[in-house]
# Entry
Amino acid sequence: CLEAEDWKASCVKEKPGEPGALLGSGIDGPVTTTGVFLGGLAVDTDYRYRFVAKSGGGGPVFGVGGKVGIDGADTTFHTFASPLQPPSSDPCANARFRIGPGAFLPDCRAYEMVSPVDKAGGDIITVNARPGRPAAINQSSIVGDKLAYSTFRAFGDAQSEPYSSQYIASRSAGGWSTHGVSPPRGIAPGEGALEGTDAEFKAFSADLCSSWLVRDNTIAPPLAPGAVGGFPNIYRHMNCSPEGYVALTTVTPPSRAPAQLELELQALSTDGSHVVFSSNEKLTPEAPVISLSGRTVYESTGAGDLRAVCVFPGGGTSNSCSVGSPAFATLKDGRSINTSHAISNDGSRIFWSDSSASAGHIFVRIDGTSTVAVSQPTTAGAAQFWTAAADGSKAFFSPGEPSFNAVGSFDLYEFEVDTEETHLIAHKVAGVVGASEDASRLYLVSAEKLGDPGQESSAGKEAQAGKPNLYLYEGGAFTFIGTLSSIDASALNSHPSPVNVEPFFHAARVSPDGSTVAFVSTGQPTGYDNTDAKNGEADAEVYRYSADSEQLSCASCNPSGARPVGRNILDENPAAKPFFAGAFIPGAENQLYAPRALSKDGTRLLFNSFESLVLRDANGKEDVYQWEELGAGTCNEESKDFSSPAGGCVSLITSGQSPLDSEFVDASPSGNDVFVRTSQSLVASDPGQFDIYDVRVNGGFASQNQPPPAPPCEGESCQSPPPSPRHPTPASAVFEGGGNFAPRARCAKGRRRVVQNGKARCLRSKKQRRAKRHHRRQSDKASDRDRG
# Structure
């Protein structure tokens, strides 16, 4: 029925529903039935419908609430409005670059190919360091004019070919150029074994002018003076100046064989002057002797200038510690430890966790000279570090080792470093989603009903005791946002969760001022039915909450209201339990950097979707979408991409036509530059393969929108063509007939030309025919005489 005031009167039965599944007695739950196809629907139109259940045996039918004879509630869906044809006019100044799929892009964006055409026949992809974990580091500069990216194959000016080759692409007025930054190994690319099973590079500065890497010198010469030959070393590399490499580790390990030495970068100050890393070796005089399975933490403030971090308030150094959260048994990999703001921006304060059995508490090291206990020494068991203020003035933690499989199992505290005061925030906490840079706004999940009684979310729902409720904590007050699922409340399982402490699985982002939070949930905080239409699982969707407007919206939910068809995003790890998602925010590649899925001001949100959210997305593959707030960019209520259920504009960023998956890589803080990886050729100069593109506001290059030059000739194709006739007659471009007439036949003297059955023939005269017959008769007589 079309949406109207008198819709009940105008309702007609358009098509009988298909019969549902036959249910036995005692079944109480959702049942997956065959879908019903509805044709002839108008675009951009609301329709109402309801499901009606009948009993084939004549018995009663129980509906919602157990009431007899109740049909399904009135529900609506909305048909897509986006046209498949490009707009008739384009007001953007770069309209000449917005061709093909680019004509539909929002915000006057255009495609720019970042990776080069010549990649030695390879794709811009990486292999895994472990199941489901890419050996890569991809990062945009803060202004979007550079991109650091990894790939499995070396090409161009590469000096070596490690397990993952690292490149930096730079944008200029003429286009993008790529430079290889992987250090030399003394072996030319393609002539030696791959080095290690992970990415050498661990971090980049915000402007990409500095990088930090761990180099295995057991199979390659040292890169800088002071580096210890034959052992792994940590280096700083200057990418924008000729200074080259600086060795940050210059001490020969006293007790470890080269193959046993472990170095893992864990934290950096904003300017890179303070570098914090973990190791299983004694590298300073005050450091203890480390057991084979233990690690301690060091701080580097320059070439060879090391000092131990894990120093207790009363003296002595921990022989098993880590920056930020403790290294539980499941987090032995250094890349898996949460280090969110564990080091202050200026590097003066470092929060660390003691993982030894005798203590297990959180401390803060100040200026490398003093230590303050964050969690009290009287607390039994380990403590969990969640996050801290960017200036190191405040930290959030939970005393005691929590049970990560329970929904809300511990208390949450905040600790003021300067006053050494501890304040209780909430009980029954499942975890922390994130916080603002100054820690004045904190997003958390708790099984308690917090805040004012009767407080409702923007969806008109109240918090439920014993359920994972999402709250904003600010100024001592709580704002209820929505209720999540028990899967969302898991802080230490191998699947995405808003509170998961492992960076790779932490599926949430918070804007620097804390005004916006984006997160992935398998619950139904807005009421959208996320039950997978094929397998009946709860599919994860992407949500956004604005603290200023107090509005929660689902950015990735199908705008028509249709149930999603998701995919298991953990299929690369056979040991992991399946996790189905209709859409998701990609996690961090390591503990030091997460892709900027949420813009700095919170008005733009980037995510990957398996669902078609606009008509142009017709490939059934993974694509990249942008949610944009009303008033930001070109988003307004008249926009074809505006979605009322989403509360903003939902726009396709990739083409929606690639036969293979496309994915989000990173974005600049403003969101003006969105980097994606796709196999689709989005500019004329791209011949194919997987490449990285910048979907840039007011972008585009004339050089990339020209077809590539013809390849050079080879062999016989290099010979000169035959000369053309001196006076060629131009052929007709539209003639469609039997072709040119055959030239007029010439007959010998004494013969005449005749046309029989469309063919020209030359015939003899009567006299010639009589003479030939006479000659034949004379020949026959002569032959008879010879035989006689």
Remarks:
- The two ends are 109 Å apart (CA to CA).
